[in-house]
Amino acid sequence: MNVSAKPASTENASIDALSMLALNPNHCERAQQYVAGLAPAELESFAALADSHHVVMRGLLPVLEYAERGANKPLEAWAAEVLANEQMRISNALKHLHLICTELEANGCPTTVIKSLDHWPPDLGNDLDLYSTASEHAIVDVMKRRFGAELEARSWGDRLANKWNFKVPGLRESVEVHVQRLGQTGEHTALARRFVTRRVQREVGGYVFFVPAPEERIMVATLQRMYRHFYFRICDLVNSARLMDEGALDYAELKSAAKQGGIWPGVATYLKIVADYAGRYRGVELPLPTIVREAAMFGAERISVRAKFLRVPMMPEGARLYTHEVQSMALKGDVPATFRLSLLPPLASAAAIAYKITGSDKGVW
Questions:
Q1: What is the residue extent of each domain of the chain?
Q2: pTM of the predicted model as reported, rounded to 2 decimal places
Q3: Is the distance from CB of 265 to CB of 324 less than 8 angstroms?
Q4: What are phi and psi of 179, to 5 degrees?
Q5: Which residues on neighbouring strands pair with residue 176, listed in sequence order?
Q6: Does pLDDT of 358 surpass 50?
Q7: How far apart are CA 109 and CA 111, in angstroms?
């Protein structure tokens, strides 16, 4: 996407504006003017888009400030209401999340909050994602016994990944617990354990949580974006760019761990996309070490807007990353991981067929 040119469609224009608001809030007047010019129904669509990209607060706070400066009362009222509702959701979610994590820890289930708190400040994910080294039986017992949680139906993908989803009374968000495994097919076990052995404490909204170290934050984002969904949300770009800005990443440690998991090319490519995309909206190049640039397969030039997200091409780029991961696991002699990864192509085909027939792939993934 060329951010200096006027986007060709409403969808592109909204993604463009939302990217500028979230990535460069101090120099986003063009984006603020774009939102100010939207009709009421279009404003609702824009808020829904911001929600899909997990940047409601980061996307609309600059809009509220712009409306206040210009005495645009209708826009100010709209933005203030959306932000107030989102803040209420976040406050309730953080309260429940802290209780859940506290109870799991107290019952011998070491737990790390993954992805959901990466958006803070000031946003929060729309699902609450956890990783634990405990057994699934212990996790399910605590969630049902202490919170009256209802275990949601599990797809084939959930079973392979050893992922459990819970609906907790009083909580809008689903609680998703990854148990002892990470990856689309649950192929990563040694890498997954790092999310507990290297976890750090972080204060969020007045509560203290265990969260992954910065290197694990990048790896789990890579697994989700480059090996599973093949699309980016704007929050991914903002979150990871912030880690790069802060100098929080130990790139040698990141490379070593990612190579062990067979995902170093994907990690490097993920970081290159983040640096390229954020650099476009900021007008400055983000710092990126040579070891990352040399390992990256492509950058943001291959990203396109489609169906409200920033898409990564599956062919041939996604296929090459998958092939490298399988080969790496096979060369290491990790037979279980190689076997699990071999199930991905038929599952993907089944998901595509299910989507064409029913409009949903939830029964598979």
A1: 213-332
A2: 0.91
A3: yes
A4: -105, 110
A5: 129, 165
A6: no
A7: 6
- Residue 299: φ, ψ to 5°: -130, -155
What is the arithmetic mean of pLDDT over 177-194? 95
Would you state the structure tokens that stand for residue 154, as one six-digit string?
A: 């599990």
User: Cα angle vertex 150, ends 148, 154, to 5°?
Assistant: 155
pLDDT, residue 3, reads 41
Cα 15 from Cα 13, distance rounded (Å): 6
Exposure string over 58-79, b if 16+ CB within 10 A, otherwise e: bbbbbbbebbeeeebeebbebb
Distance of CA 15 to the CA centre of its chain: 17
How many CA atoms does the CB half-sphere of 334 hold within 13 Å?
A: 20
CA distances for 328 relative to 221, 293, 348, 365, angstroms = 20, 20, 21, 24
- 19 contact partners, CB below 8 Å, separation of at least 6: 3, 234, 237, 277, 281
Confidence (pLDDT) at 6: 39
Assigned token pair, 70: 């210009």
Parallel, antiparallel or unpaired: strands 200-204 and 207-211: antiparallel
The rounded distance, in Å, linking the Cα atoms of 84 and 217 is 28
pLDDT bucket at 211, cuts 50 / 70 / 90: very high
Packing angle of the helix pair 234-245, 56-69 (nearest 10 deg): 90
- Can you give 300-319 as a three-state secondary structure string? HHHCEEECCEEECCHHHHHH
For residue 30, how many C-alpha atoms fall within 13 Å in the half-sphere facing its CB? 14
My answer on whether omega of the bond before 122 falls inside 30° of 0, hence cis, is: yes
Distance of alpha carbon 24 from alpha carbon 121, whole angstroms? 15
Residue the block writes with tokens 């994907």: 266
